[in-house]
Design brief:
The structure is a single chain. This protein is of the alpha/beta class. The protein is about 35% helix and about 15% strand. It has 14 helices and 13 strands. The strands form two sheets. It has an eleven-stranded mixed β-sheet with strand order 1-3-2-6-8-7-12-13-11-9-10, sandwiched between helices. A two-stranded antiparallel ribbon has the order 4-5. Strand 2, helix 4 and strand 3 form a beta-alpha-beta unit. The longest helix is centred in the middle third of the chain and has 19 residues. The mean pLDDT is about 95.
């Protein structure tokens, strides 16, 4: 082990095994990660709130659990995105307008993580109402550990920054129009959005963002992502990865949103991943079908409509300028029944299936353009935010609308020194298949698990 904090740089899988075996104490692991958060997070802004005393108390109680030796996440420090409930903590969703009362109970995902032995060390920053792929709000600006002048993405940006800087080995995120996969790509992580119904979406069981939003994990290894997803889904088989066998994999480098080009380095990286998958025995074909133009329009209209839906019960005088303007556009779209609902249903019922064809997996780039700068985007107007959001994150919405599983896998580093990601997409119920393909890529094309400036004192063996 390194001379750093207990378990620093270890995967969640390894920490849990050591705590179950009595080789590490959960208290030492949590204390070490809290010390690292205290030292490093002021420059990152990953966390809105850190639960230092409560987390240590929960770690102490963990040792008394009679089922400690069976807990899949025993003693693993985790972070929760600030848009699901953590009992006793505020849920602010990046806003000054949201309820300041502590949540009276855990969200089902939080409860499942805790039941599996995980220790919630804090809640992570998000953009206001989780509307954009840049993480800033009245609660602070989150920065990318690979380059603090750039955003870690969004809306699960604080969670991604925390994992990429080894402040926690595993974090919760959720994804309504790419909000797990975008920050995973920005920060060089594995992040999976499960298909509809695999993981509880909300405390009351109601679908989020018209059924587009799903909860999932962010991690540095495929096995950790699989373990986190298995706990969130209460399905241990999701963590049992094997050989997926030869698959039909389609390579698509077409843009989903007309008028926004894909960075040539990202296309080249995606092609290189396809070559590797071919060498692993999969049948690779060029997938040249175009996304229908109406789908991109539906995604944008849905985005504004969800802004209106989310902002409607709040005091709009306390919202950011961007949020107010997005909500106003969404209200007008709803008034004329142009909120994208019919087009979403069309893609969900038959469009996605026709586009996918006879493939087992679709491979495509993650980001279209590099991560934007870290800034107070919420204070800028809707046009500025919309253009940068669409330019960077235009390849995600089809798979939220369809409700199919999709994930980001690290695929190298560009000439700017920033991570590159690729997406893998499969049909409903094939989350484990995606994870198995990702595990093959991890073996064949291993990646740097942490941002360069945050590797000191870590044991990544």
């Amino acid at each position: 082990m390194s001379d750093g904090p207990a378990g620093a740089g270890w995967s969640a899988t390894r920490i849990a095994a050591a705590v179950r075996a009595g080789e590490l104490s959960a208290v030492d692991v949590v204390r070490g990660h809290l010390d690292r958060i205290e030292r490093l997070d002021p420059r990152l802004g990953a966390f809105r709130a850190v639960r230092s005393e409560r987390a240590l108390a929960e770690a102490e109680r963990l040792a008394e659990r009679p089922d400690l030796a069976e807990l899949p996440l025993a003693g693993v420090p985790v972070a929760i995105k600030d848009n699901i409930e953590v009992e006793g903590e505020q849920m602010r969703i990046g806003s000054a307008a949201t309820d300041t009362n502590p949540s009276p109970q855990d969200h089902p995902v939080t409860a499942r993580l805790r039941a599996a032995g995980a220790i919630v060390v804090g809640v992570t920053n998000v953009p206001e109402l989780c509307l954009v792929p840049m993480t800033d709000s009245v609660h602070g600006i989150s920065r990318n550990p690979w380059d603090r002048n750039r955003t870690p993405g969004g809306s699960s940006g604080g969670s991604a920054a925390a994992v990429s800087a080894a402040l926690v080995p595993l974090a919760h995120g959720n994804d309504g129009l790419g909000s797990i996969r975008i920050p995973a790509a920005c920060c060089g992580l594995v992040g999976i959005k499960p298909g509809t119904g695999v993981v509880p979406a909300s405390l009351d069981g109601e679908p989020q963002w018209g059924g587009l939003a799903e909860n999932g994990p962010l991690a540095t290894t495929v096995q950790d992502a699989a373990l986190g997803l298995s706990v969130m889904a209460q399905d241990p088989k999701l963590a049992e990865l094997g050989d997926p066998g030869p698959l039909r994999i389609g390579l698509s480098v077409r843009q989903a949103q007309v008028g926004f080009p894909i960075d040539p380095q990202f296309i080249a990286a995606t092609r290189a991943v396809a070559t590797t998958l071919g060498q692993l025995g999969h049948k690779i074909s060029d997938h040249t079908r175009r996304y229908p133009a109406w789908l991109g329009n539906a995604a944008v209209r849905s985005w504004y409509s969800f802004a209106w839906e989310t902002a409607q019960p709040l005091d709009r005088t306390r919202l950011d300028r961007r949020t107010r303007q997005m909500a106003a556009i969404g209200r007008r779209l709803a008034t004329v029944h142009a909120d994208g609902a019919r087009a979403r249903d069309r893609w969900r019922r038959r469009g996605a299936d026709e586009f996918f064809g006879d493939l087992d997996v679709l491979l495509l780039p993650s980001l279209s353009q590099p991560a934007p700068k870290s800034a107070r985007w919420g204070e800028l107007n809707v046009l500025s935010n919309s253009l940068v959001s669409l330019r960077v994150a235009s390849l995600y919405a089809p798979w939220n609308i369809s409700g199919w599983p999709a994930m980001n896998v690290p695929a190298g580093v560009d000439t700017r020194g920033m991570p590159i990601g690729v997406q893998l997409v499969a049909r409903p119920g094939r989350e484990r298949l995606l994870l198995e393909v990702a595990a093959q890529l991890e073996q064949a094309r291993p990646w740097e698990r942490y941002a360069p400036d945050y590797r000191e004192g870590l044991d990544e063996s």
